[in-house]
Design brief:
This is Zinc ribbon domain-containing protein. Keywords: Coiled coil. Residues 14-194 form the CT398-like coiled coil hairpin domain. It comes from Nonomuraea roseola. The protein has 246 residues and is mainly alpha-helical. The protein has five helices and four strands, in the order ααααββαββ. The chain has helices spanning 5-29, 32-88, 94-175, 180-193, 214-222, and strands spanning 197-201, 204-205, 229-230, 237-240. Strands 2-1-4-3 form a four-stranded mixed β-sheet. Helix 2 (32-88) packs antiparallel against helix 3 (94-175). The chain is rod-shaped and about 140 Å long. Bound molecules: zinc ion. Zinc ion is lined by residues 198, 205, 207-208, 210, 231, 233-234, 236.
């Protein structure tokens, strides 16, 4: 392949811009915020699940408390009704009186037991509510922290995007100065090796850093200026410059 030395030299500018774009793509993929956000999202999901479980438990206890309070009321109302009958003086038979008094006493004991149950549920509910509040607070705090990390990620991505757009635009300009067949070869090699062209500098290929043999250097010295050379080691396009050592 033949190409004007100036066009060949532009390949080095293209390679430099491509390496800038590669670095930017790498930065985009490896932003520290990405790992932070992943970890925070995992923790958030965990806390959200725990909060839902705690809310369910607190809800169950609230219903349990209502039911226990209703039980207390039922027993209390029965005891009050019996007490009224006793106080009314309408029950006169000693046997009935004794039976009524014994029922009232039994209802009071029952009420006492049921009130104990209510108190015990209230204590458990208090603990459950505190757990809900704690988990919801932690979950919401994490959401705020994560939103801040997302903002930092977005700002970093915007900055990288700006630098990439600038490099892309300069790359397009450079590419117009390179003949289509040379550009196609460069792109093919770039796809294969990551970098498509390298400078010959002081007798070394700057792509693979290998020093060329005397025979290769002699061959290059006698090659026409417009011949497109390739590194025998890494197959990249080898571009001659005044620093090539030939
Ligand atoms: Zn090489």
């Amino acid at each position: 392949m033949k190409a004007a030395p100036a066009a060949q030299k532009r390949l080095l500018d293209l390679a430099e811009l491509d390496s800038v774009l590669d670095r930017l793509a790498h930065r985009r993929r490896t932003l520290p915020e990405l790992a932070v956000i992943d970890e925070q999202s995992r923790q958030y999901a965990q806390l959200a699940t725990q909060a839902i479980a705690a809310e369910t438990e607190a809800g169950d206890l609230a219903r349990e408390q209502t039911k226990a309070e209703n039980d207390v009321d039922t027993v209390r109302i029965r005891a009050e009704r019996d007490q009224k009958r006793l106080d009314s003086g309408m029950v006169t038979s000693p046997k009935d009186l004794s039976s009524l008094q014994s029922e009232i006493a039994s209802l009071h004991r029952r009420q006492g037991d049921l009130e104990e149950v209510v108190l015990e549920i209230m204590e458990r509910r208090e603990a459950a509510d505190a757990k809900v509040n704690d988990l919801v607070a932690k979950r919401d705090e994490l959401a705020t922290t994560r939103a801040a990390a997302e903002d930092r990620r977005d700002a970093a991505l915007a900055e990288i995007g700006k630098e990439a757009a600038d490099a892309e635009s300069r790359r397009s300009d450079v590419a117009t100065e390179i003949p289509a067949d040379l550009l196609a070869l460069y792109e093919k090699l770039r796809g294969q090796y990551g970098v498509g062209a390298a400078m010959l500098h002081g007798g070394r290929c700057m792509g693979c850093k290998v020093s060329l043999s005397i025979a290769d250097m002699n061959r290059i010295k006698t090659a026409p200026h417009d011949e497109v050379l390739r590194c025998e080691e890494c197959r990249r396009i080898l571009v001659r410059t005044p620093e090539s050592g030939i």
